[in-house]
Amino acid sequence: MHTTQSTLVASFIKYAFITLTVLLVTSCSSQSDSTSSNKNLHDQFAPESGGTLINAMTGEPSSLISMIAGESASSAITSNLFNSLLKYDKNLEIEGDLVSSWQISPDQKTITFKLKPDLKWADNEPITSADVLFTWQAVTDEKTASPYASDFLLVKNAEIPDPLTFKITYEQPYASALDSWAGLQILPKHRLLGQDLHTTTFSRNPIGSHYYKLDNWTHGAYLKMSRNTLSVLGPAKIDRLVTRIIPDNSAQFLELMADNIDLMGLDPIKYARIIPSRPELQDKLALYKELGNSYTYMGFNLKHPPFDDVRVRKAINYAIDKQEIIDGVYLGLGINIASPYKPGTRWSNPSLTPYPYDPDKARALLKEAGFTDTNGDGILERNGKPFSFEIITNQNKEREKSAVLIQRRLKEVGINVTIRSIEWASFISRFIKTGDFDVVVLGWGLGLDPDQYNIWHSSQQAPGQFNFIGYQNSTVDKLLEQGRLELDPDKRMKIYHEFAQVLLNDSPIVYLSAGYGLTAIHQRVKGIDTPSPPAGVGHNSYDWYIPQPLRRNEMSVN
Amino acid sequence: MNIPLLKKALSNPLALSGFIIIMVVLTLSMLAPFIAPYDPNDINVKAILLEPSPQHWLGTDGLGRDVLSRMLHGGRISLLVGLVAVGISTIIGVLLGSVAGFYRGWTDTFIMRLVDVMLSIPSFFLILAVIAFLTPSITNIMIVIGLTSWMGVARLVRAEFLSIREREFVMASRTLGAKDARLIFTHLLPNSLTPIIVSAILGVAGAVLMESGLSFLGLGVQAPQASWGNILTDGKEYIQFAWWLSLFPGLAILVTVLGYNLLGEGLRDALDPRSNACK
């Protein structure tokens, strides 16, 4: 059986991407802590096909070719449209998606994938190994400038001996090889050959192979998908998926209460304060809480002085009270972390402790770095220039509030901070991709594999790539390169523990909180696994169903 | 403006109530640092979204800040923006209006076509577009609102000038050899002052609304500084739950704008001989 991949909502993050907002059903570890107030009776309704599921997102995807988009909004949609060669099952074991089997050579350098026979794209063209080869060529093409390119550039040679076989050879054994192929969505060659992936109309009007196909994308309003009858994994139960673009989280919540959407990611105040205080909402909604593989951070632009000075970065780290942010902004629904891995997993180094809140140490470090308050205005100066910078963030309430708390704490040690909150698309295109910022408050959604080459390796700084803070450390570079080649899990763990330690010591970012993914799903949606398996609540969303009596009037869905 | 006129205006109950509202709002805002029970930016993560209570008369916001204190301080911002923006627009409007009305001819045509062009652009969108290119800040907001709302004043002043410049006392002065500047500043302008004042007072109401709107959209006053508009934005997030965050700043904007409008209308009625004749 190869049909256990979640697709309805962004179920897994196979890859690192920049997260837009509260993550939607994105747990990815073997210790999924999921609670649910689900009082519905599954058995009351037999599974049946049909119906429409409506969800909402705050930001619009920049492209539906996920290898260039690199953001959660895009991945939430494309995970319903495209397959990869491999995927994770509900217990986070790798299994075939487009392939029926794969073989790894004894020297660990060659992998041979066998595609399932008779697979079809949604336009009835056959899926062959030529598509896979094309996709590999696209992701490694310099013109594509994919943030994920480095994973696939390690492939020395790719060949297609026959239409169902795809054979790759690595220069050296690559530890994250299977994981990387589980994250690469295969694109149709016959639609894309000779086109520029950045400008092609395909990115708005894609043809895929997964449970759903895109029918209509009305800019700023919604994306409508319907069941793909040619789906390579067989039919999903729910007929239509509508993803509405509702940039404002409170408007989304109003729509959820008014029964106009079925599912949304919640912020901590809605999860912990508003819904518990309203019995009618508790009856209507099932709540899910999962420790996601994601975290919120404050990142310095290391190319802008004075953030190139490690003492300044450390000082700021000491000056920020992370617990206050977790308590005040996340209402306790967060964890103070010291490494870029999900707490409790093997990759997270248990011997590291977060920077404590210590304003005196911060002041001492700033003084050491040459900052003193010469004119007595309470703001430090160096060479006559006051220490002042701007924090930018996207219009996400938690991040804005975190920034306000940071602003206050930094003021106490003599740093003047202004805050600017910018709409997602222009935030990414105008500030992140161009590197035109001092400090960002942002989040990372991470994959299951510990490899974070894309984010931290010094070679990943081109516009559109993920090392936009400009981090450069030869030790880290070396560790990341080693980690990719190390196949022994224990040795690999040591490498990533050391990596996290160097990172913590360098303080290129301040970890603010590893947050929980909080989700509300309407009780009309049945078939949800409770408690959630390690792969998260959305893992079997293709199997969710909405019983006829509980469906909303279809005429009202538009 | 002379005192009897003010008295006359305030004998109108609506204008009087407007006047009282504005005085109360102004006084409270001026005294904000002394009467606000808390520091408006004092974050207290243990007191998030508390309902109105004896400790926090108007409740607390999403970061545990006292809403009353934030409203009092926010009032200062709103009124400052209102007054400065109107100051700017009035100065520009009066200058261009006087030049157009006094010199007539191509100057007049040019200025009035400029006014037409400016009026043909929806001002809120113009402001949004301009702010998108600048860094949002109080100073920028005041300047931008000022620069985009002078057209009404210019038209008004021009119209006044057109009628006054033909009057006998102006003729007399001109015959005696008075220079243009003297004619404008000692004769024409003082005699068109009342409509300018009325329009300025009404303009403050518009500017307060504009500032609130921009701050509501996140383009106005930036965190952590409070303004009524951005308290409302915070409130919108929890409108079904934390009603106090939406209600009080909303009411403050409503009442203030109402106050300026009542006073402005009342003054106009009192100062306009035609409307007096009707009564």
What do you see in this structure?
The complex is a heterodimer of chains A (558) and B (279). Chain A is of the alpha+beta class. Chain A has a domain at 294-515: Dipeptide-binding Protein, Domain 3 (Dipeptide-binding Protein, domain 3, Roll). Chain A has helices spanning 66-69, 72-78, 129-140, 149-153, 177-183, 189-192, 249-257, 268-274, 279-284, 310-319, 322-328, 359-368, 397-412, 424-432, 453-456, 474-485, 489-506, and strands at residues 17-19, 35-36, 52-57, 86-88, 94-96, 99-104, 110-115, 155-159, 165-170, 212-218, 222-227, 240-245, 263-265, 285-291, 294-300, 334-335, 381-382, 385-386, 388-394, 416-422, 439-445, 509-522. In chain A, the strands form five sheets. In chain A, strands 1, 2, 13, 14, 15, 16, 19, 20, 21 and 22 form a ten-stranded mixed beta sheet that branches. In chain A, helix 10 (310-319) packs antiparallel against helix 12. The model of chain B has no long low-confidence stretch (mean pLDDT 88). Classes of the chains: A alpha+beta (558), B mainly alpha (279). The A-B interface holds A 248-250, 253-254, 257, 269, 273-274, 277, 324, 327-329, 331, 395, 397, 400-401, 403-405, 407-408, 418-421 and B 41, 43, 45-46, 48-49, 62-64, 135-136, 218, 222-224, 236-241.
Task: Give a nutshell description of this structure.
Chain A is α+β, with helices and mostly antiparallel strands and 558 residues long. Chain A has helices spanning 66-69, 72-78, 129-140, 149-153, 177-183, 189-192, 249-257, 268-274, 279-284, 310-319, 322-328, 359-368, 397-412, 424-432, 453-456, 474-485, 489-506; strands at residues 17-19, 35-36, 52-57, 86-88, 94-96, 99-104, 110-115, 155-159, 165-170, 212-218, 222-227, 240-245, 263-265, 285-291, 294-300, 334-335, 381-382, 385-386, 388-394, 416-422, 439-445, 509-522.
